[in-house]
Design brief:
The complex is a heterodimer. Chain A has no helices and eleven strands. Chain A is mostly beta strands. In chain A, the strands form two sheets. In chain A, strands 2, 4, 5, 6, 9, 10 and 11 form a seven-stranded mixed sheet that branches. A four-stranded antiparallel sheet of chain A has the order 1-3-8-7, with no helix packed on it. In chain A, β7 and β8 form a beta hairpin. By secondary structure, chain B is mostly beta strands. Chain B contains no helices and eleven strands. Chain B is globular. The termini of chain B are far apart. Classes of the chains: A mainly beta, B mainly beta. At the A-B interface, β4, β5 and β10 of A face β5 and β10 of B.
Chain lengths: ~110, ~120
């Protein structure tokens, strides 16, 4: 099973600050890494497919990068509505797995 | 409007069974691979099961293999999961989600609102 480890677990950020979340895979997964946003009491929403493809309707301040084992989700200029937990997910091999999540709060 | 709506959750005793449903609308359900994903209270996301668009293939997480069965009725645009021999550790919100690509080896692009399953005596 491929283990995804996100860092940090928690981040407190001032508005308009840049946020960087990393996801490291226990083995190479190519670009089969996706990012989701889950706001409190809501279901997850897809942000980025295959490491760097922004999903339809996602604000341009969200972007992804990386390949192999190291991936990054960047939020340029954090807004109050971005308070959420962010998860990475690999679809390279079964069982499909998620990272443990990174909670982003406003300072 | 693209939508997935889960139902069937509730409180069930350990060892008993429960069937969840997920009604799809606004997209071509019969061409879509479908997943169940769960989230225990205060915890992260865990993939549970996947079924191909035509129902010919299924995959399961080890934690539910042999106890859960995923199925679908394309004539009713509905996804199911039959959960048997339920355990306390199955307590979670259960989401159905669509696979962006029908094989499952892709992101989950549409999610339902979830249905809560509590396993407790």
């Amino acid at each position: 099973e491929i283990v995804l480890t996100q860092s940090p677990d928690f981040q407190s950020v001032t508005p308009k600050e840049k946020v960087t979340i990393t996801c490291r895979a226990s083995q190479s997964i190519g670009s089969s890494l996706h990012w989701y946003q889950q706001k409190p009491d809501q279901s997850p929403k897809l942000l980025v497919r295959f490491a760097s493809q922004s999903f339809s309707g996602v604000p341009s301040r969200f972007s992804g990068s990386g390949s192999g084992t190291d991936f990054t989700l960047t939020i340029n200029s954090l807004e109050a509505e971005d308070v959420a937990t962010y998860y990475c997910h690999q679809s390279s091999s079964l069982p499909w797995t998620f990272g443990q999540g990174t909670k982003v709060e406003i300072k | 409007q693209v939508q997935l709506v889960e139902s069937g959750g509730g409180v069930v005793q350990p060892g008993r069974s429960l069937r969840l449903s997920c009604a799809a609308s606004g997209f071509t359900f019969s061409s879509s691979g479908m997943h169940w994903v769960r989230q225990a209270p205060g915890k992260g996301l865990e993939w549970v099961a996947f079924i191909w668009y035509d129902g010919t293939n299924e995959y399961y997480a080890e934690s539910v293999k042999g106890r859960f069965t995923i199925s679908r009725d394309n004539s009713k645009n509905t996804l199911y999961v039959q959960m048997n021999s339920l355990r306390a550790e199955d307590t979670a919100v259960y989401y159905c989600a669509r696979g962006y690509e029908s094989s499952g080896f892709d992101a989950f692009d549409i999610w339902g609102q979830g249905t809560m399953v509590t396993v407790s005596s």
